[in-house]
Design brief:
Strand order of the largest sheet: 1-2-3-4-5-6-8-9
Shape: globular
Oligomer: single chain
Mean pLDDT: 90
CATH class: Alpha Beta
Distance between the termini: 48 Å
Number of helices: 12
Number of strands: 9
Structural class: alpha/beta
CATH architecture: Alpha-Beta Barrel
Radius of gyration: 24 Å
Strand content: 5-15%
Length: about 375
Amino acid sequence: MKTKSNSTGTTYFTLTLLFLAATVFMGYSQEEPSEKGLKDYYKDHFPVGVAVSPRALQGESAELILKHFNSMTPENVMKMGPIHPEEDRYNWEYADQVADFAVKHNMKLRGHALCWHNQAGDWIFKDENGGQVSKEVLLQRLKDHITTVVKRYKGKIYAWDVVNEAISDKEDEFLRDSEWYQICGEDFVIKAFEYAHEADPDLKLYYNDYSAVHPIKRDKIYKLVKMVQDAGVPVHGIGIQGHFSIYEPSEQELRDAIEKYASLGVEVQITELDVSVYEKEHSRRDPLPKDEDDAFKPEQEQKQIEQYEMLFRVFRDFGDTLTGVTFWNISDRYSWLDNFPVRGRKNYPLLFDGKLQPKKAYYKVIDFEK
């Protein structure tokens, strides 16, 4: 019996050694991939963030956030309209929930956004009779808003998108013809950065915009940031929103944009990353066409895998310039693109599917440690 026991033990030991050798040979890690998140794979490159709503900060979505991300941006609750709906009233409840979650879990927090033409309460542009306010009144209201919000989250928020989407999409216009511009001209941009710096001199101050890698808009964003610099007002970074698609941008466009922005001596971040599986259709507001199937097709999936691989390869190449990459929403379960620009159409733009599981593109994004 003793001899039989030794033989069995020897056989088991031999098989174990063979299994371990095969595991090493095949390139498997002894650390389960599920134990690491995006933030861990990119810890030597840049923080990886995600845009959140307060309702996402509990349950399985909160677990996914904590596993994969070390930075957050409030998707909507810190925008001017939601947080400051009336001149004499602020709504801190939901913004505080996001800030408190970030502090509790030692996550970086980006503020979004202090000055934007959209989601700004109508009151800010109107006088007591419903007419348009003067430039002096509007700038004072802007200063009061920025000062109050920035000071409330001082020490919790490390960077703010100070001005958001001020550049015109029209090729022959510099700034968007918003009420900010109509009343204040270009001064509102410079003053917003001035007010934010005065409220918290330690803040990183960003200009943020979409289509920021397209050459025409890229050059106008460059001009805007240089305008602020030339006015002697601090601006520390440019946010490339990163609302991309499986068809754009090209690798060269992305590299050229990052290099041009960095030449201003500022940081660059990808602030609102997603990769739509449809072509850009900014002008379409009609219901979903009857002949358009919005299932996630294999060819879309493959193009998305290739696009994400390219994007993160470029991001890693600019590790000394990029100071953060933030996804806009957590998973395909919910994305702002589900209803934009085509109402009722489902999109699949993120690295996690509707069940909060990693998609094939996720594994391509983390497959660089070789």
